[in-house]
Amino acid sequence: MSTDALAADRALLSRTSTAERVAGILRTRIIEGYFPPGTRLAEDAIGSALGVSRNTLREAFRLLSHERLLTHELNRGMFVRSLTAEDVVDLYQVRRFVECGVIRTVTGPHPGLEAVAESIAAGESALAAREWRALGTANMDFHQALVALAGSPRADELMSGILAELRLVFHVMADPRRFHEPYLARNREILEQLQRGDGPGAAETLDVYLRDAENQLVQAFADRLADRGE
Predict the structure, then answer these.
(1) C-alpha–C-alpha distance, residues 96 and 106, integer Å
(2) Helix 199-228 and helix 85-95: axis angle, to 10°?
(3) For a Cys-Cys bond, which of 110, 147, 188, 228 suits 159, CB 3.0-4.6 Å?
């Protein structure tokens, strides 16, 4: 079989790979809270900052739109997506399937627990420094580390997308410290259960934890609508 046609696709492959890397950078920034919901992403400014072409950046935007992180508004441009209470319910349902399913299988020593412990330590440092966005990021890292215990690249990729969407949800909380701080102790409780090899118990603890967080966020959306008179 001739490879001439594939050779002609070389430039397309290079551009797509760059677009994926750009999408990864922007996705990370969304997870870290640098781009709140409703933020307009200016092509010229972002393209110049990253040193990429407009076509590459638009391909990255397309990838992130497919991940439900960005949305295009006609004649206005690309914006970071604003989520709803319905999105919260769906995201937390998936989180319970994935996270609880993974840690339930931990019944003995696991090398991945070191990363889980490091994320908790980072959260405690952020709390001490009163860096609330960093506290939220450390909490995200905790949950990513839990899923990483499965040793599955597909599960890791799925969780990364979920966490990026969740960062957009968390902006609904007026006081990020009040939302994130209480979960630090609960993170440590889950870690201690996993260190004892009690994966099933940790899964039950996490299930309650996630349901509590979901209820808080759904209530925050309801309060926001009430404040707007909607």
Answers:
(1) 16
(2) 180
(3) 147
Question: What are the Cα distances from residue 139, in Å, to 95, 143, 187, 217, 219?
Answer: 14, 7, 8, 16, 21
Mean model confidence pLDDT for the chain: 89
Q: Which two tokens mark 31?
A: 């997870």
Q: In 10 A of CB 144, how many CB atoms?
A: 19
pLDDT tens profile 164-211: 888 888 877 778 788 889 999 999 999 999 999 999 999 999 999 999
pLDDT of residue 2: 45
Residue-wise pLDDT tens digits, 46-69: 988 888 899 999 999 999 999 899
CATH 1.20.120.530 fits 85-228, yes or no: yes
Contacts of 8 (CB under 8 A, 6+ apart): none
The amino acid that residue 56 corresponds to is T
Which amino acid type is present at position 57? L
Instruction: Tell me which CATH code domain 4-80 carries.
Output: 1.10.10.10
pLDDT of residue 126: 95
Phi, psi of 84 (to 5 degrees): -125, 175
CA distances from 28 to 52, 89, 173 (A): 17, 23, 20
Which sequence spans correspond to the domains of the chain?
4-80, 85-228
Parallel, antiparallel, or unpaired for β 77-80 and 70-73?
antiparallel
